[in-house]
Amino acid sequence: MGDISKLEKAQGALLASAIGDALGWPYEFNSGNQSCRNYQDDRFVSWKRKNRSPFWHVETIEKGNYSDDTQLMLAVARSLLSENWMKTFTDIEYPFWLKYERGAGRAVKRAASLWEKGVVPWQCREYRKDYFMAGGNGGAMRILPHVIKNQDDNIGNIIDDVIADVIISHGHPRAILGATCYSYALYYLLNKQDVLSFAELVDILIEGRKIWGAAPNQDRFFDWLEVAQNESGYNYSVEWNNCYTNMIKGLDYVKQALNDGLLSDDKIVLENIGAYSNVCGAGDIAVLTAVYFFSKYVNTPELAISVPAFSVGLDTDTIASMTGGLIGSFCGIDWIPLEWKSIQDYSYICSVANDLCEDKHAKIEKKRKITSFLADDIQQMKVVDSVNIESKYSTLKITEYRTVFGQTIYIKSINRRTETNSVSKPIDKEGSIKISIKEIESILKDEALRRITLKKALDIVWLKYQGEDEKKIVKQVRVDKSIVSKVLLAFQQK
């Protein structure tokens, strides 16, 4: 293999990551895909996504559109071009992302909402324990730009920045170790020019375990570590060591599975890793799975990405995205097929790679652009298209914008109508729910109503307010029709 330039590797890594995200998103376990899940090939597909925010609706996701994985990766990349990347990310990029996020998990959205309010997640008593239980891959999936920008730096310094990035949203060791291990793998592949031997990456990760597996630096993370140890609800040091040990066992298992060669069954391997378990979205599992796919299919890069993307039951978009990051870091850009170059924001992603690879002195003007862009009102962006989705009481408008950088974002706005043809509705024109003490007493005495959760009761009320008929409400909330009728009767306006 001839030498691949630093820029080609950076472009390949970012593009392949976005491609994996776009290919896998329709088949993610919680994507809300209303289209046929069996339609899987190497092409991007347009699909229907069921979404409950700001009310139940179905939106069309165009071919090649990426999800929150790529959105946050690009937000990190822009932050790294500023003088203080962490402040830029937590104060500007991360809160702003909430306006255009697509497909994000609970932990990353909750953390972004806290930063938007100026609240540091691990200092917030209300959500502190949730934060330290957040071990998902929402941190690992966005850290690629750190490694690209600093690939000539010491790996220890890069890992420190990766940890600083991950703990912005996730506090559990599984999230952090998944990201540090992934960054170590990326670093190795970005700097690797000669032939890669079979399962070499797994061996490198095992050999480098004391680097990527080291606990956060005491000098840099002292305050955070103190909170983690005393307020997390568990012994943080013990949990860290347990997660680290399990990851080494996982890497040993992956190595053994790869040594079995063609005799290894992907599904069996992934089941043993935990990729199909109820913690399949954890950071440590994500990197183990991505390393496995990369190592097995690196000689066929397209297959390395498409296999995880279409493995229904996995966290398909993130696994394919992280595998893509590894593939591109080693293989560069020339292998990417023409049809995959229709990925959303292809040119912009290439420009981001170029910015990250530029000499530090050449980035002064870009810093100014970043600051001004994010301070601008949304309406100053270029409107590309818009779609209206109607419900009985509201109109949801999805507007496609083009930012000054060239990124495409989709922002939702809702217009509520006060007029209604309904004679009786559970919420009045001002949005107030009416229920009497007598009705509360009646609910408490009703055995059937006592068995449903408050969330389901409120879902019923909310869906009715959005104009859904009882048949659809029964299907969406998954309760008996009699329950729906009783809840709506209890909350009727007088």
Q: Assign the CATH superfamily of the largest domain.
A: ADP-ribosylation/Crystallin J1
The percentage helix is 40-55%
Order of strands, main sheet, comes to: 3-4-5
Say how many strands there are.
Answer: 5
The biggest beta sheet is recorded as: 3 strands, antiparallel
Secondary-structure element pattern, one letter each: HEEHHHHHHHHHHHHHHHHHEEEHHHHH
How would you sum up the global shape?
A: globular
The helix count comes to 23
Describe the protein in words.
With 494 residues, the chain is mainly alpha-helical. It folds into three domains: 6-362, ADP-ribosylation/Crystallin J1 (ADP-ribosylglycohydrolase fold); 376-416; 437-490. It has 23 helices and five strands. It has helices spanning 6-24, 68-80, 85-97, 106-116, 128-133, 144-149, 155-166, 173-190, 200-207, 209-212, 218-231, 236-259, 266-273, 283-297, 301-309, 316-331, 346-357, 364-375, 437-445, 447-450, 454-465, 470-477, 481-490, and strands at 47-51, 57-61, 382-390, 394-402, 408-416. A three-stranded antiparallel sheet has the order 3-4-5, with no helix packed on it. Strands 1-2 form a two-stranded antiparallel sheet. A hairpin with a 5-residue loop joins β4 (394-402) and β5. α8 packs parallel to α14 (283-297) and α14 (283-297) packs across α16. The longest helix has 24 residues, at 236-259. Mean pLDDT is 87; it is low at 419-426.
Question: Can you give keywords for this protein?
Answer:
single chain; ADP-ribosylglycohydrolase fold; 3-stranded antiparallel sheet; two-stranded antiparallel sheet; 5 strands; 53% helix; globular
